[in-house]
Amino acid sequence: MIRLYDYTLSGNCYKLRLLMHLLDVPYEAVSVDFYPGREHKSERFLAINPFGQLPVLDDGDLRLRDAQAILVYLAARYDPTRTWYPNDAAAMGKIAMWLAVADDITRTSSAARLHDALGYELDVDAARAGAHALFRTIDEHLSDVEMTGQQWLAINQPTIADIACFPYIAMSHEGGILRDDYPAIRRWLERVRRLPRFVGMPGILEPVL
Q1: Among 15, 41, 115, 135, which is least packed by CB within 10 angstroms?
Q2: What span, in angstroms and rounded, lies between the C-alpha atoms of 113 and 79?
Q3: Model confidence at 118, in pLDDT bands (50, 70, 90)?
Q4: Which residues neighbour 201 within 8 Å (Cβ) at sequence distance 6 or greater?
Q5: Residues 6 or more apart whose Cβ sits within 8 Å of residue 142
């Protein structure tokens, strides 16, 4: 069975839990005390991931780190329909662009959340400004593609691009980054929340059906 080294409040861990739930893939979650225990920096965990970061996924003899890389693996390995990561060169290229954006969202919106929620010392004003710059661009993109009938980030169906970008946008308010000025983002967030088999996490509620 898949083993996920997990921290419940991590958006990067959550995106993997979400995709595995959407795909109905069983897994074992191994809790890592990220805060306040900083177990991810312990000698024991550094033997698992020398970079000292979550998440990490074990699947048999395979060990992967980095949330976006793990999303690619899970979608390619466990989605026989290739809905979430289509086997099409153009779609794969577009998804890869958004996986890079997801990393930028982590560096900005997630960083501001770490500052406000966990007391991390960092330049929170720069993090918030960076997140707003990203959100403006994402909102404009979503608004533009909505006019053509597309409702998702990369292509005209939900993919791992949407899963990758979703958590730290959905929890941006926890870092003092409000979404009032981004109507297309708010519509997209609601579409993600209404995916069949969607599950939430602390800070991301499941929709009332």
Answers
A1: 41
A2: 32
A3: confident
A4: 8, 9, 11, 14, 17, 167
A5: 153, 184, 185, 187, 188
- List the structure tokens of 107: 């560096």
Spans of all domains in the chain = 2-78, 89-193
What distances in angstroms separate CA 107 from CA 102, 112, 169, one per listed residue?
Answer: 9, 9, 12
Confidence of residue 151 (pLDDT cuts 50, 70, 90): very high
Q: How far is CA 166 from the centre of its chain?
A: 5
Q: Is omega for the bond preceding 167 within 30 degrees of 0, making it cis?
A: no
- Write out the two tokens for 105: 């969202």
Considering only CA atoms, which of 174, 189, 88 is closest in space to residue 138?
189
Q: Tokens 């403006």 identify what position?
A: 136
Separation between Cα atoms, residue 120 and residue 9, nearest integer Å? 15
Class of the CATH-defined domain 89-193? mainly alpha
Please check whether residue 6 is in contact with residue 54, taking contact to mean a CB–CB distance below 8 angstroms.
yes
Measure the CA–CA gap between 93 and 95, rounded to whole angstroms. Answer: 5
Confirm whether pTM is higher than 0.85. yes
